[in-house]
Amino acid sequence: MLYYIEAKAQGLDPLSQETARELDPVKMAKTAVTPLFPDSGILKKIGLLDDPTYHHNNVNLGCIECHGSFVLAEPNGKLQGWPNIGPGRINPDGSLGSCTYCHSGHRFSVEEARKPEACGQCHLGPDHPQHEIYEESKHGNLYATSGESWNWKAPVGEWGPEDIDAPTCATCHMSGFGDIVQTTHNVGERLYWELQSKKSVPQWKGPDEVDLITERIPDPVQAERGRQEMLLVCAQCHSSQWANNYFQEFDKVVEDYNKVWAHTDSLLQDAYNDGLISRDNPIDETPEIMHYLIWHHDGRRWRMGASMMGPDWTHWNGAVDAIMNKLGTMINDLETRRKLKTIDDKLNLLLEANGQ
User: In this predicted structure, what is the pLDDT of residue 104?
Assistant: First the structure.
């Protein structure tokens, strides 16, 4: 995102090989102090971010492994940014993406892509644990206990509820299923909410309408279409009352999170305005770190757990971790800073009164 915005600001094509060589997006990612790379704040504080011998290579084998990056072709045939199979890859010929992350090379198997393990390569861990949430859900339980006997090889467009006993990630988000919904590679097409963002809003307008990196505009009309598409999938196995009631409860969880986030964000902005913390480094002080973790880790688990019927992720790993642990820590830290600032202000007044 940093690279893309900078390229746009300079009037350059952010998808061109020439721009990537000029601006070096990987170096930019490794050296910027930003919550986009949240370890950068502490690395800057301890001096390693500016140390040329520190590689910061978790960016290469962490972020880029899943998100993808440029593959740059050098005149001698050497490829920079390779190997790289992230779905956000920008290829030397200008094409975008990598099919092999979901459909492994040499097989290109629809059977593989229909199983949750394909998605679990990236969609797991503390910040987006969809794979673990799925395992906890009743859907995941059915897959674990009987999935080996399901029909994974049905032709595209012919897969349906007679082939499987419970949905997988692909069933709900991508696959043509039950001759009711069509196959899509837009994984947000059947969703109402943006659950990964700081504040949840209806699905953003897509890249065919706006520049999705620089303009994130909620589209309630498309979001409602997405909800109705998802309900069609649910209806292959569940009654409309079952599905509708669940989504109503889920929407309340999202609204609850948004209220907690609004309070959290206002605390941080007040702390900046009152001089309790510094804006110089956006992610090195406790309130900043808690602010980040509340939305990027715990808040996502809270919302995503509810969306996929994972009660432990909704409650303990989500709401409780966000509110009691992170928000509680943030509040207590700021209260201590305010008390210390009051003492410091009084001490300075005394020193001024004594001519010191």
Answer: 87
